[in-house]
Amino acid sequence: MSPRTFIYHPGDAVAMSLVIKNGLVATQDPKRDVLRADVLIEDGRIAAIGKSIKGAKTLDASGCAVIPGLVNCHGHAAMALMKGVADDLNLEQFLGRTFAVDARRTRQDVRAGAMLGCLEMLLSGTTTFMDMYYHEDAVAEAVEATGIRGHLGWAVLDDDKTTQKGSPLKNADRFISRFKSSPLVRPLVAPQGVYACSEETLLGARSLAEEHGAGLHMHLQETRYEVHEHEKKTGKRPIAWLEGIGFLNDRLSAAHCVWLTINEIRILKKNGVGVAHCPVSNAKLASGGIAPVPEMRREGVPVGLGTDGSASNNCLDMFQEMKFCALAHKAHRWDATVMNAQEILDMATIDAARAIGAERAIGSIERGKRADLAIVDITAPNMAPTHSGNLVSNLAYSCIGANVRDVIVDGKVVVRGRALKAFDEAKIMKEAERQARKLLAL
Ligand SMILES: [Zn+2]
After folding, report:
1. Which residues surround ligand 1, an ion (CB under 5 A)?
2. Which of 100, 91, 20 is nearest to 61 (CA)?
3. Which of 110, 230, 347, 442 gives the lowest tally of CB atoms within 10 Å of its CB?
4. How far is CA 310 from CA 95, 142, 281, 404, 428, in A?
5. pLDDT tens-place string over residues 104-135
6. Are 258 and 282 in contact (CB under 8 A)?
7. How does residue 1 score in pLDDT terms, banded at 50, 70 and 90?
8. By C-alpha distance, which of 199, 190, 270 is closest to 234?
9. Is position 433 within any domain?
10. CATH number, domain at 36?
11. How far, in Å, from the CA of 218 to the mean position of ligand 1?
12. Which of 417, 345, 411, 319 is nearest to 375 (CA)?
C-alpha cells in the first residue's frame, strides 16, 4: 500500500454525534471556502458542513474560527526537555551537544519529554505531528495518552553509529509491528540522514517500510556541510546518490531540504517525495539561506511546515512557524508577493497532510475526512477584528497558539477551554521538570 493511499485505523470513536455550532469555518477544501457554518462530527469523521445542523451534543463556537487541526511535518517531541541546551551553535556543534545529551536519555525521560511536547502541540492547535527519535515506543505511549495523532519514526542509524541498544532496524521493525493497528499512531522508519546511514542501512529501512506498508522520514540536505561531505565521500550529492541506490520513493518525507538545486527539486518531484520545511530551525542553526520553497511548490513537490525539535526552535507553536515562514521568504527574495497568507495556511494544513502522505484523511474540513479540528478564539485583542474576508490572513500573521480554545482529534474533544481533557497537565509538567533535572544534571 502506498503511503499516499493509506487510511488511519478507526479508533474507539465517539459514536454520538457532535455539532460545532456558529463558527467561522476555514475549510481548506479545494476552493478554500470560508463559511459561517456548523460542522457535524459522527464516528470520528466530518459528516456534514452546513446551516442549522442538529446533533446529540453541541459545542458552541460563537466568536471562534474552526480550522483543520495543524500538521507539524517534522520534529522530535521528546526534545521538549532540551530547550536552551544547545542555543547559538552551528549545526555541527549543535549535533555534538545534543548527541551527548541524547546518549544519556532513558525511556522515562523520553516519555516525559514527549508528554510535554504533545501537550504544547495540542494546546497550540496541532493535531498531527511527524516525529523522529529512539525509544519511539515511549513517544507512542505519550500520543495515546494525550490523544494527539503521531506519525512516529523510529530513528535508524548504522549499528556502529548509534547509542541504541541492539540493531536500530530490528528495533524499528519491532516498533512498527507493535503500533501498526493503533488509531492515533502511524509508525514508520526514520533514517537519521546520509551522514549516519550507509547504503545498506538505507535500503534496509526502505525494505522494512515496504514490508509493513509504512512511511519513511529522514533529514536531507539540511546544510552545505552535509552536501559537500557526502559529495567528497561518494562523488555525488545526497539526493542524486539516494536516487542512484534506489532509496527515493513516495513513502518518503524529507525534512529541511535547504541546499537544493532545481534538478534536485525535480528528482524529488519525480520520485513523489514530500518535504518538511523548517524555517525557524534552519534560521536558528544558520543552515545557510532559506530553502527554495517557491521553486519546490512550483515544480509540484508537496511542502509542509515543521517546527523541528525544541533544542533548535525552541517552540512547537505552528502559528509562529507560519508567520516566520512568510517573513523569511519575503525578506530573502525582496519580494512581498513571493508567498501569500493562503499558501502559508496551506503549508500548515492540507499541503502538510500531503507532504506526509495523509491528505486523504486529514488537512481540511471536508465530508468523510477524520474530524481533526482546532477552534480558535477570534475575539482576542490580537485577532480582532476577524471576519470571513481576513480570517486566513489573521491565522497566518496575527494568531498565536494561545488563541486556540478547543481541539478535536479523531472526533474526540481532547482540549476544552485551553485544558487537556484526558490527562492531568500538572502531572505532565511535574514529571517533565523532574526528568529534565535528572537528564541535564541541573
Ligand atoms: Zn530534525
Report:
1. 308
2. 20
3. 442
4. 13, 17, 9, 20, 17
5. 899 999 999 999 999 999 999 999 999 999 99
6. yes
7. very low
8. 199
9. no
10. 2.30.40.10
11. 8
12. 417
63 falls within a domain? yes
Rounded distance from Cα 308 to ligand 1 centre (Å): 5
Q: What is the grid cell recorded at 360?
A: 486523504
pLDDT digits 0-9 by tens, 206-215: 999 999 999 9
Residue 64 lies in a domain: yes
- Ligand 1 centroid distance, CA of 433 (Å): 23
Is there a single domain that holds both residue 142 and residue 233? yes
Look at strands 274-277 and 252-256 and give their pairing: parallel
Q: Looking at the structure, do residues 270 and 157 belong to the same domain, yes or no? A: yes
Number of structural domains found in the chain: 2
Among 333, 355, 377, residue at a domain's last position: 355
User: What is the Å distance from ligand 1's center to 344 Cα?
Assistant: 21
Measured in Å, residue 74 CA sits from the centre of ligand 1 at: 6
Distance of CA 255 from the midpoint of ligand 1 (Å):
7
238 in the same domain as 182: yes
Residue 31 Cα to ligand 1 midpoint, Å, equals 33
Query: pLDDT tens across 136-155, in order?
Result: 999 999 999 999 999 999 99
Structural domain of residue 145, as residue ranges?
Answer: 70-355
Whole-angstrom distance, CA of residue 219 vs CA of residue 240 = 15
